[in-house]
Amino acid sequence: MLDHVKRLALAGFARHIRFREIYDPSLPHVLASRDQLIQVFLNLVKNAAEAIGDEGFDGEITISTAYRPGVRLRTSGSAEPVGLPLEICVRDNGPGVPSEIAGHLFDPFVTTKSSGSGLGLALVAKLVGDHGGVIEFESIPRLTTFRVLMPLDSLRTARLPKPPA
After folding, report:
1. Treating both helix axes as pointing N-terminal to C-terminal, what angle do 2-11 and 34-52 enclose, rounded to 10 degrees?
2. CA angle at residue 87 from 153 to 125, to 5 degrees?
């Protein structure tokens, strides 16, 4: 799925950018919506390419995966911490996320782009959450990382009925 995202990017909006891939070969298969995850990672890669810009002669996007069995976090759909051992990162060497929007980056209508709607990262956060995962980011100039943490059985987790309030 990530290779597909990279090929799409290189055929269009990221043809001027170098890609690095660091994939953990021990990752298990995941029960998830392929189309929705393609949408998530294509959006993250597109944002990374736009952050680097057309003049980014040294622009680089790194896509990495890792299996972290000890990672447990509380998600919006769980009262107790849940295991989120799958880590997928999209990292770029663009200018970074402006500090004035960092706290609201996943909110609708938040954008730094003059022609952007500000809905891309809000949709990414929703789709990741629907799969029982979380998305977070770290950003300093020349190093921004978006980290998606997912459970192994994401669709089963996402389809469980919520306990009554």
Report:
1. 40
2. 80
Residue 15's CB: how many other CB atoms inside 10 A?
A: 9
- Which has the closest alpha carbon to 160: 69, 31, 47, 59? 31
Task: Say whether 156 sits in a helix, a strand or coil.
Answer: helix
Q: What's the Cα-to-Cα distance from 91 to each of 27, 44, 48, 139, rounded to whole Å?
A: 19, 9, 7, 9
**Does residue 50 contact residue 90 with C-beta atoms inside 8 Å?**
no
Q: What is the pTM of this model?
A: 0.85
Identity at 122, one-letter amino acid code: A
On the CB side of 142, CA atoms within 13 Å amount to 1
Tens-digit pLDDT profile for residues 29-50: 778 899 999 999 999 999 999 9
